[in-house]
Amino acid sequence: MTDKKKRGDFYSGIPWVSVSPEQARAHPKGALGPLLWVIVAYFIAIAVLRLTLSLYYGAGPIIALFNCIFPFLVGLGLAFRSPWAVIFAAISAGLTVFALVRGLGGDGNLITLFETLANVGILFYLVDADRPNLIYRHRYRKYSVADAGPDADAGDA
């Protein structure tokens, strides 16, 4: 067994078990739950809002499309259970943090602050929660000590 498979999660110490994408999709938790559908709707709504506001304030159509492409791709990727969607969510969160820092002292900081907090919170959920890890990264945490195998440290009782 490799050292990577023996090691658990960095924070909790609980090991991850990798499964195939087909097994992840067949599992009951491999489908999008209500919270993930809200996240998908949020990203698509942010994309539509950015497109509308960009066009309203006089940006050209190409600039408006570039302004809304990342949230739209994140929403579609999350809806279709694509593994790259989590990476795009990280990029989208990074871009909103950059927009917040760049726009300090200007108008619209409250909207950008809300979007930054929401994107960073969603990113933490996508990276750390059990359901998104099963859906997008095809892995789950092995909580059971009985299933841990001979390399598990049962501790002294």
If you compute it from the alpha carbons, what radius of gyration comes out, rounded to the nearest whole angstrom? 19 Å
**What structural class do helix, strand and pairing data support?**
mainly alpha
For the biggest sheet, the summary is: 2 strands, antiparallel
Oligomeric state of shown chains: single chain
User: Quick check: average pLDDT?
Assistant: 83
User: How helix-rich are the residues, as a percent range?
Assistant: 55-70%
> What order do the strands of the largest sheet run in, or round the barrel if closed?
1-2
Keywords: Membrane, Transmembrane, Transmembrane helix
Transmembrane segments: 31-49, 55-78, 85-104, 110-127
Describe it.
- The structure is a single chain.
- The protein is mainly α and about 160 residues long.
- The chain has a domain at about 35-140.
- It has helices spanning about 5, 20-25, 35-55, 60-80, 85-100, 110-130, 130-135, and strands spanning about 15-20, 140.
- It has a two-stranded antiparallel ribbon with strand order 1-2.
- Helix 3 (about 35-55) runs antiparallel to helix 4 and helix 5 packs antiparallel against helix 6.
- The chain is elongated.
- The two termini are about 25 Å apart.
- About 20% of the residues are buried.
- The model is unreliable at about 150-155 (pLDDT under 50).
